[in-house]
Amino acid sequence: MRKELEEIAMIDNYLHHRMASRERITFESKMHGNSKLSQKVKNQQLSYSYIQAAGRAQLKEELEQIHQHLWSDQRYHHFRRRLKALLKK
Amino acid sequence: MDRKIQFQEDRQAVFKDLYQLSFPDVARLIKKMGGNYEDAKDTFHDAVILLYERVVQGQETFPEHPKAYLKTIARNLWLKKQQEAKFFQQVSDKETVPLSSSPPTELKVQVLQYLRSAGKRCMEILQAVYYHQWSMEEVADQFGYRNARSATVQKHKCLEKVRDQVKTNHSSPQALSYA
Asked: Is the full-model pTM beyond 0.90?
């Protein structure tokens, strides 16, 4: 398990451009001869894309909640009025 | 307070401020450009998200005039959406227009949904690290790990889990499967 996690950390560094150039070249040549490793790198890259998409989805939900809040809470009456006036023009 | 720091420590307060400051103008702009209220809301949300990513991930400084900045982003996003709609219309009448909030084409929506539900805690940790750019100390603090080092170990374990799901669902061109 520990070796697997170390490899994940290494791929993490590689994909986020944190490797020194010598280390990077060594790693890339390792990938070249090892399709299993290349596949792991590909899948880890995809994983980061999913994490990014999940982050966006979460923000979208938070903004939706704020929208609902601004429309239901008494305190934001002036904001709603200003908006309605602007949209009438 | 530095807005970037505030974005990371209390982003919802910043979102609320931006909403009150900028939404009315953006709504008016989108309406003038032919969109409806729902379009305005979606576009505004996308603009705020873009701003967040640029400041938090992209190392941009928080704009001096956020209202003007968001208006510009919103205008560009809306124009882009309309161009894409036109393109898909030309290609085929039956094509669906991609929503701005949908993930890029290589990702699968069902996999994203599965990860966010079944893998909720892991995704939250990974989002904190990679999307919100928290330090490992902050992650340890928020998620209840003893220190940055044990949080880092957990981060790698979670990455492994996500990668396994991705492997299962992207290995063949066939239908999705959940191992």
From this structure: no
